[in-house]
Design brief:
With about 1100 residues, this protein is mainly beta. It contains 18 helices and 75 strands.
């Protein structure tokens, strides 16, 4: 198995960049014979040490870079698992010499993992800290510290520094956490305890040494060591970090997350334990605050890196996971939690974890996870993550190292071969040979991924174009400018393949900043460098331990030519900085710890535009209903769509009041506005009687002509089947004082999942008629539900006339929202699997126009209207699914939904597919589709075959011809602006409009320039776990220039940070001010003022 891949990779390296007739890629592979680096991390299963006895067997090694002889050329240290580590001296011109033996740093009998390069004793010479792990009986994997003897020899002194920990270590990061001048250390240890013995037990607070397990299993539990006068003291308990055996740590990343110049820590945990985010409290302790800052995280976190990707000066965080990007790999190796396991994990405190890479964008007081939108969510079984400017365009790019030498999670192997082995062992009583079993595991090399940063928010896959598309099993990686030519070269550590060595051939040259720090911290670890050029900032923080088990060049590289630099700021610590304003003409700039200026970190004293307030006594609580139990093919739930809000003066005092719809088993509420701008909840016995209803739509209108506002409430959800009394829409009459009494007034009661109620006098006879639109047929997703038109007889008695006057609304699909046009002459509808529709009335008859605004069918959630370009005509915001989602569309793709009883079991099946090249491929994995349609399981299709099958391969032509089919081709939210010719054009909007689904909006002149701006929100959590969730919106603002252009107003300026699933947003007049009321599912009301 090993030899199979070594030769092809060697040949590829040898011939890379040899053809001068073609344009060379950005990175050229350098053959080992040419550069002198002969290294392969060779791993072979043995009887005592193999993938079955040591779960991290294929985690691979790391890369360490440092200038060990102070000649200005970065040298190279490589860790190996079952052979000697190696140290290579950089001799210039991309030639290296192996000096491992003379240097004394081989560790041939250790399973080495991570490496960190630093000057630990502050003597001006860089030292090497090596983490060790692996489990063999009788061996203890102590970490090693090699102190530079200043003559290219090293002395091992871990014990003398008290850093010889023996805890199955992955990586270490050194930094000055308490700002006393010296370097402290966080050590990530990967627990050795078998995960299947834990039963998802949350023992996060139980220290490793207190577990009732065998001593050899107690190795594990992260540790924090404080530097006390050159000796390291275990300060784990004092600092407040977790030390549990459920800490399956694979990565440590250190950076100043919140901008206070004190470094914080991000820990990537594998398996079911969630990651940790430790915020430095500046008093010698940390506070673990991951759930405060992030809405969801990666599921099996591997490597991570923290760096500014959008040039706003704030640290963003990228974390790798295991989601394949290839459809065949996805359907042959991936598996996702079912809804029960996901809820169990959340209930036990493991938070919202999903199997995909995450890119957390730092927005000051909050983060937005946008990996799906940015195009970096899926890179397969990924390890190292590095953020750096590969092409010297000023934007940090992203490298991800991929591969696992044996696909231990290959679904066909587990389903067929593993079961066959177990059966044979049961029949014969003989154990299968270990090598025979391992030999049957697939071994599939895959390429690493490198993504070009497209101005901060999106990335393009540049793997092939930049020359990094070799098929490998890669783990740790590091970058350095080995030839000092102004660009960053790459070293990638592979399993059972030669080291990947890549020289950067960029035509543009960047700048290296070499910091010389204080006496106790000569490498200036933790210092922050900000370069200004033409009013643009470029920010980096000095921290060599990065990616997966690796350590980078300690010179900071900026992808900008030194001649273009206007100034450089170096923030050495929280109170000292240097400012250099001069002309630079050298590619390497050395900045010493001198000419220090005292400073205090600036706090943002600008008052935000908005303030928010939460009304705690209005909290909505949803029940625990799971739609997927009744609808096996459903991919998202429709049972938790509230709260619905209605605004109006219900008691006639001239002040606007609020109706809040109730969730099932929770009463709706009326809040009366008081003159002092407070709101009082008043008893409403009629509403309290209807606890079993889920309120999904509402309107306040005078239906009986007595001059006060009555209440119309739509019922819905997905709890009951059609015709249930708990799906009946209701009318409540107002007694004039704001107290409501139940009075239906509807002769033909609706029993659908109601989505919207529009009060509109369509026949212009002076009374209020009602249009009631439906989201879905309860428990029958995908069917087009009926919609209803109720004509008022003038006294509040309604007759259902949709068949007589509107042809039964035939053909209108799953309506999610509707709005009256600005001139009250039409209703515009949007919904799932449909394009917008415009309904109008003429001579008492209802007609409609399909494909209004756009002919693209989408998964629309919301529509709102206002005159945004000052032409006196209505413009529209269409809230859609967005582009920051697992389910997203490329050009010429569509989603389809097939509806039929495909296996003749008298149950209607729904199969979500992606349409590509004229073929519809099920989105579900084989296991999930087989759980719904038993016929799939009976066919015995292998996963690798299922991965290539479309609907026409899986089902008969007769079944497909008799099936219902829905199509969606547009998932982007949009603003459509009216044109002089009566048509509409889609406006150019900021990317933030696509970062989550949009479910609610309002319009206001936020910046007082005379034009209406857009306030919007949404999010959607209720998907099957495979599809992650949409949660990047925290109430956003788009500024309108009045000419059809919109810009994003950053959260620091808006002051808005309302998380959760926004389901309604309404303007309300409070005294002499306009406020906004925000309805968030499962939460209390929020006021924006």
């Amino acid at each position: 198995m090993v030899k199979k891949y070594i030769l092809p990779l060697f040949l590829l390296l040898f011939f890379s960049c040899q053809n001068e007739e073609t344009i060379p890629p950005l990175f050229c592979a350098v053959p080992p014979a040419k550069c002198g680096i002969q290294f392969t991390n060779t791993i072979q299963n043995t009887e005592d040490l193999n993938i079955f006895t040591y779960r991290n067997f294929y985690n691979g090694g790391g890369v360490g870079i440092g200038d060990f002889n102070n000649d200005g050329l970065p040298d190279l240290y490589l860790t190996a698992n079952m052979s000697a580590n190696q140290l290579y001296l950089n001799k210039g011109n991309f030639e290296f010499e192996n000096i491992t033996e003379s240097a004394g740093v081989a560790l041939p009998d250790m399973w080495s993992t991570g490496v960190t390069i630093l000057d630990i004793n502050a003597d001006g010479w860089q030292d090497i800290y090596v983490c060790n792990a692996g489990y063999e009986k009788g061996k203890f994997p102590e970490n090693k510290l090699f102190i530079n003897q200043k003559d290219l020899r090293f002395k091992e002194e871990a014990a003398a520094y008290r850093l010889n920990d023996a805890g199955y270590s992955t990586h270490a990061s050194f930094f000055d956490y308490d700002k006393d001048g010296d370097l402290d250390m966080y050590l990530v240890n990967n627990s050795f305890i078998p995960t299947n013995t834990l039963n998802y037990s949350n023992k996060r607070d139980l220290k490793y040494s207190d577990w009732d397990v065998a001593d050899f299993l107690k190795g594990g539990g992260d540790k924090f060591f404080r530097n006390d006068n050159g000796k390291y003291v275990d300060a784990s308990e004092v600092t407040g970090i977790y030390q549990s055996l459920i800490g399956f740590g694979l990565g440590v990343s250190v950076a100043d997350v919140n901008g206070d110049m004190y470094e914080d820590i991000y820990i990537s945990n594998d398996f079911f334990e969630r990651d940790y985010l430790y915020i430095n409290q500046k008093d010698g302790t940390f506070s673990e605050e991951l759930e405060t800052h992030f809405d969801h995280i990666s599921h099996s976190s591997m490597g991570a890196d923290m760096r500014d990707v959008n040039r706003d000066g704030q640290v963003d965080i990228f974390v790798t996971d295991m989601l394949p990007y290839d459809e065949i790999r996805l359907k042959t190796t991936a598996s996702f939690d079912d809804i029960n396991l996901r809820k169990l994990k959340v209930r036990k405190g493991f938070y919202h974890q999903y199997m995909h890479n995450t890119l957390q964008i730092n927005q000051g007081n909050r983060f937005a996870e946008i990996a799906q939108f940015s195009g970096v969510a899926a890179t397969d079984w990924s390890w190292g993550a590095l953020i750096f400017d590969a092409d010297n365009d000023g934007w940090n790019d992203l490298l991800v190292c991929n591969g696992i030498y044996h696909d231990v999670i290959d679904l066909d192997f587990m389903d067929f071969f593993a079961n066959e082995v177990l059966q044979k062992m049961a029949l014969t009583g003989n154990k299968q040979e270990m090598n025979e079993v391992i030999g049957e595991m697939p071994s599939v090399p895959i390429s690493n991924k490198i993504f070009k940063n497209v101005k901060g928010n999106q990335f393009e896959d540049a793997t092939a174009a930049w020359g990094l598309d070799q098929k490998t099993f890669s783990n740790g990686a590091a970058y350095a400018d080995f030839d000092n030519d102004g660009d960053l070269d790459l070293i990638i550590n592979n399993v059972n393949q030669p080291l990947g060595i890549f020289r950067n051939e960029s035509d543009t040259k960047g700048t290296l900043i070499k910091l010389k720090g204080s006496k106790k911290n000569p490498d200036a670890v933790g210092a922050k460098v900000v370069i200004w050029s033409k009013n643009q900032q470029f920010t980096q923080q000095m921290q060599p331990a990065r990616g997966f088990q690796s350590s980078i060049d300690q010179r900071l590289h900026f992808g900008i030519n030194s001649s273009e630099i206007d100034s450089i700021q170096v923030f050495w610590n929280p109170n000292e900085k240097s400012v250099i304003r001069t002309k630079f003409d050298t590619p390497i700039i050395e900045i010493n710890y001198e000419k220090i200026v005292a400073f205090n970190p600036k706090k943002n004293t600008t008052e935000p535009i908005f303030q928010t307030k939460k009304l705690e006594n209005t909290a909505q609580k949803e029940d625990d209903h799971i739609d997927f139990y009744e609808e096996r093919g459903a991919y998202r739930m429709l049972s938790k769509e509230g709260p619905t809000l209605a605004i109006g003066d219900v008691n006639g005092d001239g002040l606007e009041d609020i109706f809040i719809g109730g969730a099932r088993f929770e009463p709706a509420k009326i809040l009366l506005q008081k003159p002092d701008k407070t709101f009082q909840k008043i008893q409403q016995p009629a509403l309290e009687k209807h606890l079993k209803f889920e309120d999904t739509a509402s309107a306040l209108a005078d239906v009986d002509g007595d001059g006060d506002l009555d209440l119309i409430v739509g019922s819905g959800g997905n709890f009951e089947k059609p015709n249930s009394p708990f799906l009946t829409d209701r009318i409540y009459r107002n007694n004039g004082q704001g107290t409501f009494e139940y009075y239906s007034g509807i002769t033909n009661k609706t029993t659908m999942n109601t989505s919207k109620i529009i009060a509109w006098d369509f026949d212009e006879d002076g009374d209020t008629d009602l249009f009631v639109f439906s989201r879905s047929v309860p428990q029958n997703y995908g069917f087009k539900p009926p919609h209803f038109l109720y004509e008022n007889n003038g006294t509040g008695i309604f007759k259902e006339v949709s068949v007589q006057l509107a042809n039964g609304f035939k053909g209108i699909g799953m309506v999610a929202d509707a709005t009256l046009s600005l001139d009250n002459q039409a209703i515009i509808l949007v919904g799932e699997w449909m394009s917008p529709i415009r309904i109008s009335a003429k001579d008492g008859k209802i007609t409609w126009e399909e494909n209004y605004l756009t002919n693209e069918a989408g998964w629309y959630n919301h529509i709102a209207t206002a005159d945004l370009n000052d032409d006196g005509k209505p413009d529209y915001l269409l809230g859609n699914h967005g582009e920051n989602a697992y389910l997203k569309l490329a050009e010429d793709e569509a989603y389809t939904l097939w509806i039929n009883d495909f296996d003749d079991n008298k149950t209607v099946d729904k199969i979500l597919c992606k349409s590509k090249g004229g073929r519809d491929f099920p989105v579900a994995l084989k296991k999930d589709l087989a759980d719904q349609i038993v016929a799939i399981k009976k066919k015995g299709i292998q996963h690798k075959n299922y991965a290539t099958k479309s609907m026409r391969d899986l089902f008969t032509k007769a079944k497909l011809n008799s099936a219902g089919k829905r199509v969606a081709t547009e998932l982007r939210s949009a603003i459509y602006l009216s044109q002089s010719d009566g048509g509409y054009v889609r406006a150019d909007t900021p990317v933030q409009l696509q970062w989550s689904s949009v479910h609610a909006s309002a319009f206001a002149d936020v910046d007082a320039d005379g034009d209406l701006d857009v306030i919007f929100g949404g999010n959607d959590y209720d998907w099957r776990p495979q599809f992650s969730r949409l949660d990047a919106s925290k109430t956003e603002v788009l500024l309108n220039d009045g000419k059809g252009k919109f810009s994003y107003l950053i959260p620091d300026k808006t002051g808005l940070n309302i998380a959760g699933q926004m389901r309604d947003l309404k303007a309300i007049e409070v005294g002499d001010e306009t406020w906004f009321v925000v309805g968030v599912n499962g939460d209390a009301l929020h006021f924006i003022k």
